[in-house]
Structures are given as C-alpha cells and as structure tokens.
C-alpha cells in the first residue's frame, strides 16, 4: 500500500469517526418568542354548558396567548431529525415520567402538552363536573374517553404525529388543547413569557421545526433583526457544544390570522 | 371499427387519432365510457399539493388499486379480487347470466363511485351517506378506533340503518352481500392509502424534491400494509361483553341505569338532554363534517391567493355543506346501529367512532353499562310525567 493511500484511508476513518466523537457533547437550544405588533385582546369565551360550575371561571380564547412583555406562549419547537442521538439520561427520565393533561376550571391545563411515544399520558379531571377528552390523533388511533369528576383516563401513543393533535371536550365545546407527540425528548412548548429551552441535544447540525396553533408551521420569523423565510417551519442550524441561544424570535402579528 | 385500408405503419400521432376514433365509435355504440376514481381534492388542497404531486398520487393509486371498472387487489390487502370484480364496472350480466356491477347498481348513487359519500343523491339525504375514505365506521362490535369486522358490515347491509336513508339489502343473495362488503373494504383501504400518501408530502425531506419514493418498501410495506393489517385484525379487536345476569331484577336495573344516565360519571344527560330527547348538545359536528368546518375557517382566514380560490372551488364542488350532528333522541326506540341490547352495549362501551359520543370503557363498570342499556330500552315506554321534569311533547316546542 502506498503511503498516500494509507493517508487517504486514515483521513476517511477520521472523517467518519468525527461526528460520533462529538455526539457525546450535549447542549441546549433556547430562545424567546416575541409578538411583533400591537397585542390583540383575548376574547372572552361564553360557558353555556354547566353554567353553575363553568360560569364561575373567567374563560378566554387561548388560541393566541401573548404576555405583558409580548412573549408568545404555546409555540411548539422540536428537533425534526429522525435518527437524532438521544441522551441516555433524558431517555431514562422520560420512561419514568408521567405526562398529565388536566381538565381544570372548565379548560385544559396546559393548553399545549408534549408527550413522547411510549410515555404514560394521563388525562385527569380536577373539576366537579364530568368531561370527555376527544383526542384527534392521525397516526395513532383516535380516542374519546369519558373523564368523570376526579377521574382520569390513561393513554399511550406508539407513533409520532406530524402535527400536534387537537384535544376537545364534546360536553363543553369551548375547551381545546393540543398534544404534541414526538419519538424523543427534544421538544418544547414556549412558556408564558415566550421562552423555551430544549435540553441535552447532541451538539452539531440539527433541524428544528416550529409550530403555532393559529399560525400553523411558521413560515417567517425575525431572528436578531434579520427576517428569515422558512419552509414548513423547518430551520437547519448548528448547535455548538456550549449551547445555542437564538435570542428573541419575533413573529409578526400578520401570521396569526387563521 | 377502423378503416380497412389504414396503413400498417402509423406514426404515434396517427395512432392517437385512431385510438380516439375507436373510443368515439364505441361510445356511439352505447358502450359506457370508462369510469375513474375522483381524487380526494379536499385533502390534496388542504396539504397544498402541486399539480405534479396530485398526478403522482393518482398514478400510484392506479397502479395499486386499478380503476372502478377493473379493480386490483394486491395480496397485502387480503382482499378477494374475484369478489371485487363482481361489484366493479357498469351493471351488466356475464355469460352465465350472473349480475355484475353490483356496487354501481346498489350503492354508487349515494356513496359515489369512489366511496366518497358524494353520489348524485348525497346532498339531498340527511344524514349524508358515509364517506368510506377515512376508513371510519360507526356501528360495529370492535373497540372505538378499530375497524368493523366483516360480520359488522354484513349486518349493516342486511338490516340497513334505521332512521337514515340506508336501506336493507336483505333481498340480495349471500354471495352478493359478501362481495359488496369486500368492495366497501376495498374503497376504504384505497381511500385511506390516498389520505396517507397525500399527507406524506409534508414530511418529505428537502432532497426528495417534493416526490414520494415509488418503491415497494415505501408504498406497500410502509403505507399499505399497516392500513390493511388493521382491517384484517378487526376480529381480534372485538369488545368482550360480560353476559347480563340472567336473574337480573329489571326494575332495579332500570332505576340504577337512570341514576347513571343523570349522574356525573356516565353523564349521558349532557348531550342526550334531561328529557332524553337528544336536545342537550345541539351544535357539535361529526369528524367528517368537522374536517370541512375547520378547513373553511382556515381558508377564510388566509390571504387572498391562488390557493384560496382553488380551496373555495374545492369546498364548493368536492365537499357537502357541513351539518351538525344531533345526539340521538332516545325516546323514539330507533337505534341506528341495531336495537339488540348487545348493540347498545357496544355503543356505550366504545362510544361511536367519528361521532362525539365518548367511550364509557374504563370509566363505567360493565355491569353498570348493562343497567344503562336497560334504562335506555325503557325510555320509549316511559309514561309522561314519570321523569318529573317538564318536557315539551310537541316537536315544534322543542326547537
């Protein structure tokens, strides 16, 4: 074997091994969604069923929730890559954890819930009235269970869903929630202040996907003052070992029109 | 047909003209032009498919399922092609005088050639005929999300669906009913495959350049097989029903059922109403109608564009006007999914797939479900005033 060939083989080996060596570095991706424009007031919802119980609560339309400092809650962010390497600690924690969706004060809490495939998903009812939870999954069998006062229904999803699935209550038609089903722990729902963090992502190249109930898969966003056009809410980025802070991600008021 | 003196060697252009001539002449002789399946344009437009992508779906479906005149059943579907042939094509008799084209004779005018529930009569019927394409059926003996068994569909054809326009086909021979059930499954599996393909474009990676892989692994193993397996596994998903105790005290059971009906656990009262006339929850939709209602909202909110005008065209031409679904009036004694106590048990246990009716499974004990069944069956015979609530007796006062 000629020396040059040996060098080339060695180089190829190096190239192949490089990503594997780096994949044990786990980093986090964070950012904050900010509403671009004047914040619309959330409309009141009228509780016309079980008025004696549900009428007591102030219910508002939660399709678009913008906080005082313009942070947008309930924006979904997840890692799209199918074969993404999963941090074993996160996987072990997820297998033990139970994810809950509560029927509380005649609304769902939280409004958008993230659950992993195989994880136990419990729909409970803290209200004094009975509910039912109609889960409109596409790839998993849809379900619709009665959830009596103080009771619960347990579900498990075997496949991921391409878009978050709607959860409704047929008894109280104003109630709506969304469940995001992913095959790994790499997803987040933005909090009341608009911030999100996905922890323990393998450092390196990754593809994120962004979704919001009223905007669908986000087609445009402004990051660091720069307008970004994205297709189907997908964005490729490189996550350094020290972590990636995307900073303020401004979403223009015009995209929330559905 | 074509002229005797036509040259032996023809250019493709000439051949095309000749073919057109032959087709035209045949049509003139009274032969029916070939039928084709209508694309699911609602879903294709919703998913923003390009014309090329719509064509790819049509090409794949043609290869996998054939045409309404000449159906194909891949072995993975588990369907019997001979039965399908009996139902497919125009109504005619074969050489031994056996009736062919059964689907078009008995079903297509309501359920449509494609099984989309949009035959010529559909818009005039209430409820609308079933759209088979999502593969969702209401009246069956299996768990909520599972497919109906073969026997479930046979029973529907035999009995019809009381309270709807679906008649009984008890006058058909057993062989014909068997064949039609097979054909309904074929249209469902085809429709589900189409939906799965159309929805798959969204998930393609950029390097796929907007084209689905036309490989056996993808089309058969990944898309078709899981759909077919759920149909072929339906018999294993049957609801286990404990027998109602033979020595049950019927009056006590009815009283217990009444308690459950109004109670917070079974909560029947919320939709079927304090009067049980089905006047509790009047503004809900079933899944078929809800899909259109929600898409209408989405289209209405979008900026004016070519997509919006196409979507409006599709909504006008390829979808029926959405209708709400009223909860059943339980005092009529008319039960769409069958009136046997067992049928009512199935409905309460699993709820009704595709409809707002939730499943009592896991919340209400089997013995309690039997009590509710007994109470429901007593409702049409309950004397006025026994409920202790004011209920309007005249239909016009109820609305």
Task: Report on the architecture of this protein.
The complex is a heterodimer of chains A (258) and B (399). With 258 residues, chain A is mainly beta. Chain A is built from three helices and 19 strands. The radius of gyration of chain A is 21 Å and the shape is globular. The N and C termini of chain A lie far apart (66 Å). Mean pLDDT of chain A is 91; it is low at 11-22. Chain B has helices at 12-28, 41-46, 51-65, 81-87, 102-106, 108-111, 150-159, 174-200, 216-232, 250-262, 269-272, 287-301, 306-317, 341-350, 366-378, 395-398; strands at 92-93, 99-100. Chain B has a two-stranded antiparallel sheet with strand order 1-2. The relative contact order of chain B is 0.11. Chain A binds chain B through residues 49-50, 129-130, 132-134, 136, 138, 141-149, 151, 153, 162, 170-171, 173, 231-232, 257-258, and chain B through 144-146, 199, 202-203, 206, 264-267, 270-271, 281, 283-284, 287, 297-298, 301-303, 351, 353, 356-364.
Largest protein interface, residues of each chain:
A-B, 28 and 33 residues
Number of strands of chain A: 19
Task: Classify the oligomer.
Answer: heterodimer
Q: Percent of residues of chain B in beta strands?
A: under 5%
Q: Which secondary-structure class do the elements of chain B indicate? A: mainly alpha
Provide the descriptors you would attach to this structure in a database record.
heterodimer; A: 258 residues; mainly beta; Immunoglobulin-like; five-stranded mixed β-sheet; five-stranded antiparallel β-sheet; 3 helices; globular; B: 399 residues; mainly alpha; Cytochrome Bc1 Complex, Chain D, domain 2; 4 domains; two-stranded antiparallel sheet; 16 helices; 2 strands; disordered N terminus; disordered C terminus
Would you summarize the structure shown here?
Chain A has helices spanning 3-22, 51-54, 88-96; strands spanning 26-36, 76-79, 98-104, 107-109, 112-116, 120-125, 131-135, 143-147, 152-155, 165-168, 176-182, 187-189, 195-202, 204-212, 216-217, 220-223, 226-229, 234-239, 244-252. Chain A has 258 residues and is mainly β. The termini of chain A are far apart.
